[in-house]
Amino acid sequence: MIDLKKLEVWFVTGSQHLYGEETLRQVDEHSMQIAKAFNDSDQLAVSVVFKPVVKSTEEIYNICQEANVAKNCIGIIAWMHTFSPAKMWIGGLKILKKPLLHLHTQFNRDIPWNEIDMDFMNLNQSAHGDREFGFMMTRMRLNRKVVVGHWQDEQVLLQINVWARAAAGWNDWQGAKFVRFGDNMRYVAVTDGDKVEAEYKFGYSVNTHGIGDLVQVINKVGDDEIGKLIQEYEDSYNLVEGLRAGGNQHDSLREAARIEIGMRYFLQDGNFKGYTDTFEDLHGMAQLPGIPSQRLMAEGYGFGGEGDWKTSALVRAMKVMGSGLPGGNSFMEDYTYHFDPSNPLVLGSHMLEICPTIADGKPSCEIHALGIGGKADPVRLVFNSAAGPAINATIVDMGNRFRLIVNEVEAVTAEHQLPKLPVARVLWKPLPDMKTGCAAWIYAGGAHHTGYSQNLTSEHMEDFASFAGIEFVNIGKNTTLYQLKNELRWSEAYYNTFK
């Protein structure tokens, strides 16, 4: 599991010298108390660090500059306890590269009706101090999240945590490396894209290594290592008889273990956070990585099939955002439909590579034929996914911009056993309904590959898109095709005019 507590969000409060030392001392004390309460709260996944109140152009610029270069700082929570003239903030906000949350709160929850005087009013001016700050950010066309409410309100903490988790995912992308083993699946459009623009926009790099580079590492894996991993398979999964020691397919399990160990070494040595492969590029490999990709995803690596590097990176970001939360995140594909008018469903799956973090129960480790790729039958984990609310997310390259699309879905328990379907799978109902949800996805240009999440929401993904400065399209319970098509037209006009 990725430890998000190692990451810091800085709590920065704005004021000015006008109010005198006593008022500024109280502002500092109040800010310190709020930051400590946030840091101690079980509701927030990251650490919250108090920073002394900023009162001048120079102090604001310096704290923003410090945040930019601080390795563990993933964002700033800003609050104007008093009135902080916003022209002081221009220089700092111009250079700030980290995500920003504007907390519109005040120290006291209630007005002290019988005690309130002008001293109290001068100290507690968030109601208009934050509006001054808000105007400047809007004037500067800055992306940020605004959270409104008392700092002890649980809903406020939940919103801050969503933003903080999204900021953790964004921070993880900065300087990240993703490797493609082989190229994009030939002639496929949506899985390809502009890797140069992606590195400029998102902060991660994508480069290709020939399969031979990987095979060299795989071939060095020793029998002792393979034996230990085979034992781990036996302890973790229900192995079919043929894969067990002495079974007629046990050598295939050993080869899968060899591939997994070799891939892990390659990823670790290259400091890669995710990868892609494709059944069209397997030269020197005995089988397409099935269980290796499933288990590497479960460890937190991003994965995309058929060379889909955008989805590999997105799955990795979703793994980081969801770290520590119940449920999992996986590479996914809309595979086939159940068009029963009374119970329409999407069956999501892939040839092999669905992450076991979304499994409902103990997976079965099996081996079956794969009709494409021309290699030996691959070993894979087979399971049904848990029911409940979930999302499917994808990033597509629209030529002049990237677009992040999310469909909120409701996963359901399979009513049938699917005894002949030899892959992991999940059944879901797209929101707002089957026809609208699928049509909206197609109108938006959504890919057939997605990142599927049981523990993230569209709010996480909207915040994430905001950090990247990319278009966000949400398909949920209130979506209508008329409204969605208008939103797509408006976005097209906006990006052609202003971006």
Q: Could you outline the blueprint of secondary structure elements for this entry?
A:
Blueprint: E1 8-14, H1 21-40, E2 47-50, H2 57-69, E3 73-80, H3 90-95, E4 100-104, H4 118-123, H5 126-139, E5 145-148, H6 154-173, E6 177-181, H7 195-202, E7 205-209, H8 211-218, H9 223-236, E8 238-239, H10 250-269, E9 274-277, H11 291-299, E10 302-305, H12 309-321, E11 329-338, E12 345-349, E13 364-367, E14 379-382, E15 388-397, E16 402-412, E17 425-430, H13 434-443, E18 449-453, H14 458-468, E19 471-475, H15 481-498
Parallel strand pairs: 1-2, 1-3, 3-4, 4-5, 6-7, 6-9, 8-13, 9-10, 16-19
Antiparallel strand pairs: 11-12, 11-18, 12-17, 13-14, 15-16, 15-18, 16-17
Helix pairs in contact: 6-12, 6-14, 8-10, 9-10, 10-11, 13-15
